[in-house]
Specification:
Elements lengths: L11 H38 L19 H18 L15 H44 L14
Helix pairs in contact: 1-3, 2-3
Length: 159
């Protein structure tokens, strides 16, 4: 057997291990895809359950229900706009402690933080789903490209 014709995998034990790794990659990828989808759905339904509607004067998605990352971003942006308008452009930390608008700006800041948390959760779930697809495809490739582990059989000698 020439060097070029030698198999990449020396023994049937190695092939078996690689096929198991490929199968684990497929299973792991499917789990990541499903869990990412469940998290996306959970965050979306929880936001929708709050019955938040993007303000009519928002720069985009005005009037839509907040149930996805873009609508959450639109609402967070318009909340910030309103808070800055009410405070004369000052943040919560810049306002005097006895300023009457300070509680409003604080509430706006907390609402924005909550919306940004949901945006991060959407991003992480999207990342998990994308990575799950890649891991599953890599596992499938390893599984398919690795030869089946064959039983060793005696090959009659040719005279």
């Amino acid at each position: 057997m020439t060097m070029a014709a030698q198999p990449l995998i020396a023994g049937s034990g190695q092939a078996r291990i690689l096929r198991i790794i490929g199968l684990l990659g497929i299973i792991g990828g499917l789990v990541m895809l499903v869990v990412g989808g469940v998290v996306w759905g959970t965050v979306s339904s929880q936001l929708a359950g709050e019955k938040i509607t993007v303000a009519a004067d928002a720069s985009f998605l005005a009037g839509t229900t907040v149930d996805n990352p873009l609508s959450a971003l639109a609402q967070a942006n318009i909340i910030n706009h309103h808070a800055m308008e009410a405070s004369g452009g000052k943040t919560y930390a810049e306002l005097a402690q006895d300023d009457k608008v300070r509680p409003t700006v604080m509430t706006a800041s907390l609402l924005r933080a909550s919306l940004f948390t949901s945006i991060v959760a959407f991003g992480v779930s999207f990342f998990a789903m994308g990575l799950g697809i890649l891991v599953g495809l890599f596992g499938w490739a390893i599984f398919v490209l690795t030869p089946h582990a064959l039983k060793k059989t005696a090959v009659p000698a040719v005279a």
